[in-house]
Amino acid sequence: MIMRRWAMPIAIVAVAVGVAAGLASLKEPPEEKITEVTVPEVEIETRQAGPVSITVGSYGVVQPREKTELVAQVSGNVAYIHPAFVRGGQIAADTVLMRIDDSDYQTALLDAEANYATALAALETEQAQGKVAREQLSDVKNPTVLALRKPQLAQAKAAVKATLAMVQRAQRDLERTAIRAPFDALVVARHPGLGSYVSTGTALGTVFALATAEIRLPVAAKQWPQLVNQGNDAEVTLRVQQGEQSLEWPAKIVRSEGIVDDNSRMHYLVAQVENPYQQTPPLRFGQYVTADIQGRVYQNSVRIPYQWLREQRLPVFKDGQLAFENVDVLRLEGDQAVVQLSNTAPMAIVTTALQYPSEGMALHRVDDISVPAGESEIMIATESKDES
């Protein structure tokens, strides 16, 4: 009876152990887990060092080399005005811009010429009388100068000189009634109108010379060393942006002002353009322009976007890994940088910004892998055993 009581529990336990053992024998081996290793995919741009020309940027306003204020040198009423003697008019050199009534000056000239003729006649008379006196007094010992009529002759000669000067002055005054253009000119302003009375010194107008335009170009002290021979004889490109159109004109540095401005601490160069209004399109006075001044040429250099640099180093792709090349930053130009390299061998520059770049990290070039558009990384799968 006792044996039967214990047999049942033992049998149940045995069955449970058997079932557990059977289930354990059916358990699957550990699953293999794929671990993803990220290798950055980068874009590469190959550059090769060589000579790089530097330009120094500046700006300025186009001005005439010569500008003249016309003033009246004689007085009178304005009798004539050239049709082109208006603001914006262009007039050839020596053209009569304005004429003052010259009738009084013509009369003055006639009067001066008459006085001159009278003085000449008196001189001839005195010369003849002096000759007669010398002949009559040839036998007289030590005749006086008055008897020889020398003072009278000197007076007659002086009168001729004085009246000749009056003639020349009257001629100049008559010529000054015609106000002429001193050079091929652009009229900027005209003041009196037809019939106006002007006196000596009255402002008549302002003209600019068309032959040469000048542009005063400031250069910062830090950019001054980038110029060759302090910019003298350097070629310059002037630019004006008109909407979407960029206009350009060639110019040349003709001189340095030789001083540093007290307020701005800038050096100043002066560029010239010959016949600015004959250019295509015309370069007009008063126009604001930007300027690129030819500077130095650096060897073993390259111009790159500044964002490619990593603490004065250039990231490059070598044998599937990231490397850094030390460079000498010569100049910053907005978002560009001019850097000098140690050699002229082609260099595969990594242009993709890496989050945590480190020397020797593995990289994959975009052109080495075919990936769907928009992907920037690839995954490499490796197998490992789950230890659990």
Automatic annotation (TrEMBL):
InterPro entries on file: RND_pump_MFP (IPR006143)
Gene3D superfamilies: 2.40.30.170, 2.40.50.100, Helix hairpin bin (1.10.287.470)
A GO CC term assigned to this protein in UniProt: efflux pump complex
Taxonomy, superkingdom: Bacteria
Transmembrane annotation, as ranges: none
GO molecular function, one term: efflux transmembrane transporter activity
Family listed: Belongs to the membrane fusion protein (MFP) (TC 8.A.1) family.
Official protein name in the record: Efflux transporter periplasmic adaptor subunit
Organism: Bacterioplanes sanyensis
